[in-house]
Design a protein that fits this description.
The chain is α/β, with parallel strands linked by helices. It has seven helices and eleven strands. It is 32% helix and 25% strand. One of its GO terms (molecular function) is monoatomic cation transmembrane transporter activity.
Length: 224
């Protein structure tokens, strides 16, 4: 398939690597020049375009017309909605997907024409509602024929990541902390969030990176 990845940082990096493994044709559009250089150096098979994907001329010059899927990963929900609507209206992109930080926007965005709006908080809240207690969450959930793993890791007081910001952690390649479950609170993190003892981390990784991811968070697999 032909796929556009608009915006994003770690999640875009992860997705591009994963999609290229599936032999998809990828155009990545990002407004951060330094990150474009990183993506271009990391993924020779992807076309990396520097520019604001909210701008029509940037999308036009990127040559995205008629692509199969656009995935919008900008920080602001409003930007992602604008990108998705423009992709369908002006560039005949068949399906649009975006992330949203405000879980209330999931249903609103889908009513406004986005094919799939994804909120980690929204999905986890509904999942937790169906579980009797948080401990019922599945520890490892295989996705996409074992190409992606979603791990739930409990952080103990002696783990090396306690009181460290996510941005300061040395996580292996293709690893993202997508959610922090802190008692009854569900947190969609950014690089400034600190990890606390007792947190449960929802970690997305590949089978190849799973062992290193667990070791980086727990210090040793025996602490899991």
């Amino acid at each position: 398939m032909k796929i556009v990845v608009a915006g994003g940082r770690d999640e875009a990096d992860f997705l591009i690597g994963l999609l290229l493994m599936g032999k998809h044709k990828i155009i990545a559009i990002n407004g951060d020049m330094g990150y474009c250089e990183h993506l271009a150096a990391s993924y020779n098979a992807a076309s990396v375009i520097y520019g604001d994907p909210c701008k029509e001329y940037v999308m036009d010059e990127a040559g995205v017309k008629g692509y199969d899927i656009l995935i919008a990963l900008r920080e602001k929900d409003a930007d992602n909605l604008e990108i998705c609507q423009m992709a369908k209206r002006l560039f005949a992109i068949k399906k649009t997907v975006c992330t949203v930080r405000n879980p209330k926007n999931v249903e609103i965005f889908e009513m406004l024409g986005v094919d799939r709006a994804i909120s980690a908080t929204y999905m986890l809240a509904h999942y937790i509602e169906q579980a009797s207690v948080i401990e019922d969450l599945v520890r490892v959930m295989p996705l996409e024929n074992q190409k992606v793993l979603v791990n739930e890791i409990k952080v103990n007081s002696d783990c090396p990541v306690v009181d460290r910001r996510i941005a300061d952690m040395e996580l292996p390649f293709n690893t993202i902390i997508s959610c922090i479950i802190r008692e009854t609170e569900v947190i969609v993190p950014n690089g400034q969030n600190k990890i606390m003892a007792g947190d449960r981390l929802v970690v997305i990784t590949t089978p190849q990176s799973q062992k290193e991811s667990v070791k980086a968070i727990l210090g040793s697999e025996d602490n899991e």
